[in-house]
Amino acid sequence: MSDRVVGGYTIDVDLLYDGERHVWLLILGEGRARVGMDPLGVETMGDVVQMYLQEPGVALNRGAAFGTIEAAKFVGPLTMPVSGTILTNNQAVASDPGLLTRDPFGEGWLIEIEPSDPAEFDLLVRGEEQVVEWFESKVRDYGAKGMLAE
Amino acid sequence: MAAMKTLPLVVPGEVYDPSHVSPDWIRISYASAIALRFKSGRFTRDFEFGGINLLLNYSEGCKSDCAYCGLARTRPGLYEEKSFIRVDWPLVETDEFVRRLKTHEARLTRLCISMVTHGHSYKDTVDITNRIRAAVSTPLSILVAPPTLTRARIEHFKTIGVDMIGVGLDAVTEELFHKLRTDVPAGSLHWEKYWEVINDARDVFGPWKVNAHTLVGLGETDRDLVDLFSRLCERQIFPYLFSFNPEPDSRMGEHAKASLRRWRRIQLAKHLIEMDGLRNDDFGFDARGDLVEIKAPPDLVLRAVASGVPFMTNGCPGPKGEPGCTRPYGSYRPSEPFRDFPFLPTKEDAKGIDLDLALEGLIGLDRHKVGD
After folding, report:
1. Cα radius of gyration rounded to whole Å, chain B
2. How far, rounded to the nearest angstrom, does the alpha carbon of residue A83 sit from its chain's CA centroid?
3. Nearest CA in chain B to A101
4. Which of B100, B208, B261, B368 has the fewest CB atoms found within 10 Å of its own CB?
5. pLDDT per residue over B333-352, tens digit each?
6. How far apart are CA B247 and CA B9, in angstroms?
7. Domains parsed from chain A with CATH numbers
8. Are the CB atoms for A94 and A31 separated by under 8 Å?
9. What are the chain A neighbours of B40 within 8 Å (beta carbons)?
10. How far is CA B337 from the centre of its chain?
11. Nearest residue to B224 via CA among B284, B172, B295, B169
């Protein structure tokens, strides 16, 4: 794990990121990857109050919803960064969504999956330089849109 | 009609300092906190938002004890831990709030100070109004606490730059008001005083500058609501609709909210009374007082529904007469259907509204052709 502070947020630059949905992917080994949400994605939703995660065994395409997340004034889907089958979901974060804010890359992980098409990894933002550049641009963008506290 | 149950929506609060009280500290709605960038966040749907709501804050809390209110005196928990309208209202420093109003003035549409029943409430409201007025010219309303007011105080609000007065009547009949706000464990309120303030405010501020908040789902009938809407509109006082949304642990925390069908029909009836001049005689009710007929030309009703306007949030207007106070997700969770829309409903929204309304029976479309 390689942490860097980018735009005021500590992020792991070794992970792969869905650049639009702020969902990260950590490849754990052959046929298994962990999915979570990055701190910017979490913060721009507002205070998260409830979360629902799909049950293990469900196969989903990239971009399909593996859950929903509800904040004080927002509700939206959690989407698959790559296609795959859900192996397990994190009941701890489902019952305590505050984990997402407190430890987005650790205890706040969301699901583990078996990816069905490793070629889709190439569609994600990866590599330290690209991740930093992408994340910085998103911080600027969300700041300009008024989604970040000042 | 089916009763609707919802889960509580309470977000974590801040660490509370008992010295952080009005007038130097205030609470602001969560949506306001996002708009003024006190909090990060966004709305599910993308729309312009500039209606800022603030609430006076006291260590002792509100002196009233209304059965349905999150701030009720006897609701369990410390005042600072209580939600109001079911979400956290962040506590902010008044001067910083005013500074941010100035920074974001171009996008602001309406400001509203909500008083609470407390001995310092009037003087603090004046203080805060003066601070705001010295900084921005955005239209400013006060949602008043009648027990704290006299006619002279209402007149003073006008002289310092307040342009509209709201009165949270909430319960629409005297009997219901007594049950929920007068005959309570602590902090009784009085129907007569509320009407005295409505009448004084109407005299002082003039036509369509006063609004009475009415809460749908407290136990009233549709007939009760329509009767009150008619009386208020006759006197050029706006009825503003709110949907009862149970506050967890309040005495009405387990009380079901109004069904969407009932709510949509009440929204429509209120709009027809306010905008098209219908009165209580133009509506038919069954023995229980449920609205079962609108005795108006179907074209008129269909046009109102198609406009989408009846289903938008009731609130004080912005500088150009546009909806100024829109309270997004104020009486429903983001995961629930919009009760009132903080923007003009889209075509897709309109389909849902039509299903909710089931209008055919109400206007006799099953008996007449449109345009007959």
Report:
1. 20
2. 14
3. B12
4. B368
5. 999 999 999 999 999 999 99
6. 9
7. 3-143 (2.40.50.100)
8. no
9. 43-44, 46, 147-149
10. 18
11. B172
Q: pTM of the full predicted structure? A: 0.92
Distance CA A17, CA A125 (A): 5
Which chain B residue lies closest to A148 (C-alpha atoms)? B40
Report H helices in chain B.
30-35, 94-103, 121-133, 151-159, 174-177, 191-205, 222-234, 260-276, 298-307, 347-357, 359-363
CA–CA min distance A145, chain B (Å):
10
Residue B151: pLDDT band (50, 70, 90) is very high
Could you read off the pLDDT of A98-122 as tens digits, one per residue?
999 999 999 999 999 999 999 999 9
| Residue A45 at interface with chain B, using a CB cutoff of 8 Å | yes
Is B10 a residue whose pLDDT tops 60?
no
**Which regions of B13-157 does DSSP assign to beta strands (E)?**
25-28, 51-56, 91-93, 110-114, 140-144
- Of B331, B191, B180, nearest to B251 (Cα)? B180
- Beginning with the edge strand found earlier in the chain, give each strand of the sheet holding A16-18 in spatial order: A16-18, A23-29, A32-37, A111-115, A84-89, A59-60
Q: Specify whether the CB–CB gap between B51 and B104 falls below 8 A.
A: no
Q: Locate tokens 């509580």: which residue?
A: B8
* Cis preceding linkage at A81, omega within 30: no
Phi, psi of A32 (to 5 degrees): -150, 130
A48-53 and A65-71 beta bridge pairing = antiparallel
Q: Does A100 touch chain B (CB under 8 A)?
A: no
CB contact A19 to B (< 8 Å): no
Across the range B200-225, mean pLDDT stands at 98
Query: Among partner residues A46, A76, A98, which is closest to B34 by beta-carbon distance?
Result: A46
Say if the Cβ atoms of B40 and A68 lie within 8 Å: no
Residues of B in contact with A98 (CB under 8 A): 12
The C-alpha atoms of residue A36 and residue A32 are separated, in whole angstroms, by: 14
Structural domains of chain B in order of their starting residue, each with its CATH number: 25-363 (3.20.20.70)
- Other beta carbons less than 10 A from residue B80's beta carbon: 17
Strands A48-53 and A32-37: unpaired
